[in-house]
Design a protein that fits this description.
Elements: E1 2-10, H1 17-28, E2 41-47, H2 53-64, E3 70-78
Antiparallel strand pairs: 1-2, 1-3
């Protein structure tokens, strides 16, 4: 059994209004030093060991991310 984490983020060239809103709010709560904020999505999947990396790639690019405007990366962790 494994836990798979898929992190999905807007591509660097895509405007991120939610990240910009958080960045502006930091000033209102007197937090300095944060130069940029990007907001993304995190998916956690519990999968059998038989699920291949190729299948996980297909899941991420067809169901979890809009690959036109988002990048993703997959991390597989063993569950103890």
């Amino acid at each position: 059994m494994a836990r798979v984490v898929v992190n999905v983020m807007p591509k660097a060239e895509i405007l991120d209004p939610q990240g910009q809103a958080v960045h502006r709010a930091l000033g209102r709560i007197c937090v300095d030093g944060v130069t940029d904020v990007r907001q993304g999505k995190r998916f956690e999947l519990e999968v059998e060991d038989s699920v291949t990396d190729e299948e996980l790639q297909r899941v991420a690019e067809t169901l979890l991310a809009n690959t036109v405007i988002e990048d993703f990366f997959i991390v597989r962790e063993e569950v103890k």
